[in-house]
Write a structure and sequence with these properties.
Blueprint: E1 5-9, E2 14-18, E3 21-26, E4 30-34, E5 40-44, E6 53-62, E7 66-74, E8 79-86, E9 100-103, E10 109-113
């Protein structure tokens, strides 16, 4: 892996919440650090309640990770657009994040170590 991106097992247990609901909890999260950006926690897909997520049409490309697809979080009161992303076929250097999801944190979405 290049030195621009580092991936390690995130220590401890992690949870993601939105709209008053726990979307997932895991002890198998990964922490990805890219350049000077803050670390991002990636959750294994199997530890996320996918029923809360709706695939969106949004897609982006990262020269280091590949093509990302996005999901919106559907809560009881609202839809949080494009709040989740996943690299379905990541570049070889970051292959560990395949089948993982990351969440944009905000006032509406919390990713926390528990």
């Amino acid at each position: 892996m290049n030195s621009y991106i580092t991936i390690r097992k995130a220590p401890g247990k992690w949870t993601v919440r939105a709209g008053g609901a726990v979307l997932g909890e895991t002890a198998n999260a990964l922490e990805l650090t890219e350049g000077d950006y803050p670390p991002v926690i990636y959750f294994p897909r199997e530890d996320i309640a996918m029923a809360f997520l709706d695939e969106s049409d949004n897609k982006t490309h990262c020269p280091h990770k590949g093509d990302a697809r996005y999901f919106s979080i559907v809560t009881k009161s609202k839809t949080i657009e494009n709040a989740v992303w996943s690299y379905e076929e990541p570049k070889e250097a970051v292959a560990e994040i395949k089948d993982y999801l990351a969440f944009y944190t905000s006032e509406e979405v919390a990713v926390e170590q528990i």
